[in-house]
Amino acid sequence: MCCDLKRRFLLLYATQKGQAKAIAEEIWQQAGAHGLEADMHCISEMDKYNLETEKDPVVIVISTTGTGDPPDTARKFVKKIQDTTLPPDHFAHLQYGLLGLGDSEYTFFCNGGKTVDQRLQELGAQHFYDTGLADDCVGLELVVDPWIDGLWLALKEAFKLQKERESMSSDVDGVSSSLSAAPQIVHELNLSSEVQNLKLEDKELRSSDVLTQKLVDINLVASTGDTEPSLVRSVPPLSQSALNIPALPPEYIEVQFQDTHGENPHLSSLISEGTTFEVPVTKAVQLTSKDAIKTALLLELDIADTDFDYQPGDAFCVICPNNVNEVEELLQILGLSEKGECFVCLKVKQGTKKKGATHPQHIPERSTLKFILTWCLEIRAIPKKAFLRALVECTSEVGEKRRLQELCSRQGASDYTRFIRESNVCLLDLLHAFPSCRPSLNLLIEHLPKLQARSYSVSSSNLYQPGKLRFVFSIVEFPACPTRPVSQKGVCTGWLAELVAPLLHPNKNTPDTEGGSPSIEKISIFARPNNTFHLPADPSVPFVMVGPGTGISPFIGFLQHRQKLREEHTDWEFGETWLFFGCRHQDRDYLFKDELRCFLENGTLTHLKVCFSRDSSTAEVAPPKYVQDVIRLYAKEVARVLLTERGYFYVCGDKKHMADGVSDAVVDILSTEMEVDKLEAMKILAMLREAKRYLQDVWT
């Protein structure tokens, strides 16, 4: 290796959407100020490092994807270390620290990091620094920042121990004794997803922090009349504090404008996850009444002329653009309206200090500026602190500059959470709030993440409706707020709703139609198979479905499939089926009401239990409002299906406000019916999850 052996450490990252890589780059950047060299690689680049012979400390930053899986870039690594033939002392020489990224809204929080951490421990590796688990639900930075702060002291202690061991290398027994007696370096911060457990008072760590943070002198004091903080204004003590702000991220992209001749790439070139299909939208139905709180739409796609295949329970992704008006507004603010149709060439800046700087993979080699802002960059993304730090340098007004410094500073962490993260502030919101901020195009390309395709559950069966694919969604609405005077619709749901408006309202005057028929629009999709959320392989096994609101979507596909199987195989035995459905109002948003009645009448659905959370009742005993309450009324039946008949339990819908409540209800049922305490019931539920008999398809 080119780095000084005594001061080098190996830095590995495993990323799905770029978060872990960005954090690893921050560690790499800070390392130099601490007299250290980070030898950084993606964990998939196994030809560039070798843990079997690694003598220096190893730092791993790893995210979690799907339902608790390691990211795609870590699959080969995980498969390699999970080889059951490896001896328990395979990594006995290895010292490491691991930072896991996850979201506690999901059941298997930080499971990617936990999987690697546990396996390294099983193979004899030792921690030189406590594992950190950062929670994207409350803000990764709440754990990431102090974890990085403490890393430098832990590394220096690890190097100190390493030096002591090497000095005793002439006596093998002495070395062995030293290794067994050496204390594990434990960081004083007990880092976990429980943010309230964080302790930020470690003065030694704070002093080392100054090495990599710029101390900002305070020269502004908030007006005494401003007593409430906001996105653009702070109050004491923050407004009067000296600030520790992050180091300025090095720029690494150079943008060159070319002519306006040529064609933009096909959308399929933006996707690396699989084959992309461009399919027509042949039907659109509004499932809710006009006065419903949320508008739910059903769309039908024609996949007959494609190789697209799916099972009920699968999901698929829709490639969607940013809102055209927002793109135009962004171009105008940046002073690039006249450059929108110009083709853009990106190059890595010569001499950039960014480690491993490359052409962003999600930006085509040749495309127009408008194409990049429309199809490639997530312009609605919540800006990270590193982006805010870069925007400081693009802001001319002194007060605005100071406020951006506060929002990216250690001292302004709570303001960042409140006014940026929790308020879903995006780049356009910032540019309106701080009008003297005029970032360059290269800065946007460097800091805005890839525009992700949106995932939807399939709401049909290819057996029941060959050549058709249906899905259901609610149009996401973001109401106006102090930082955004105009309401917004979701990026994808808003675009889809506008796209199919002629199908929903065929009588309205629409351009490009012949004979009164609306033109057929096409969308680009690709498969995202679900390996577990499928019907039981044995049709005689009973199952329970819980799907309030649009969470009912995959279960319509389940029931369609089951009905067709019953028609084709009259001699088969079919298990009973339960559906617990809930919505706000029976007459406004009872989705698939007629279809469910038909499934009941023909015997496909054995039991249908519904509830309506906003309807008033004149009954002496008020009916249950939520699906978890209804489930409790059928405790014995649920326990019988799960325990006696070894059935399946499916949950689809909102994670925080429904799925957690349902799992709590199931725990209570198991506890009561099995006459065990709650802890034992939770273990039983965990075993059901492990056996893939309690399955969730949830979102936040």
Automatic annotation (TrEMBL):
Acyltransferase as a keyword of this entry, yes or no, is: no
Q: Indicate yes or no for the key word Nucleotide-binding.
A: no
Give the quaternary structure.
Answer: Forms a multiprotein complex with MMACHC, MMADHC and MTR.
Q: Which GO terms describe its molecular function?
A: [methionine synthase] reductase (NADPH) activity; flavin adenine dinucleotide binding; FMN binding
Q: Which residues form the FAD-binding FR-type domain?
A: 274-536
The record's subcellular location field reads:
Cytoplasm
Q: Which species? A: Chionis minor
User: What cofactor is needed?
Assistant: FMN; FAD
- Keywords assigned: Amino-acid biosynthesis, Cytoplasm, FAD, Flavoprotein, FMN, Methionine biosynthesis, NADP, Oxidoreductase, Phosphoprotein, S-adenosyl-L-methionine
**What EC number(s) does this enzyme carry?**
1.16.1.8
Top enzyme category: oxidoreductase
| Reactions it catalyzes | 2 cob(II)alamin + A + 2 H2O + 2 H(+) = 2 aquacob(III)alamin + AH2
Name of this chain's protein: Methionine synthase reductase
InterPro entries linked: CysJ-like_FAD-binding, FAD-bd_FR_type, Flavdoxin-like, Flavodoxin/NO_synth, Flavoprot_Pyr_Nucl_cyt_Rdtase, Flavoprotein-like_sf, FNR_nucleotide-bd, NADPH_Cyt_P450_Rdtase_alpha
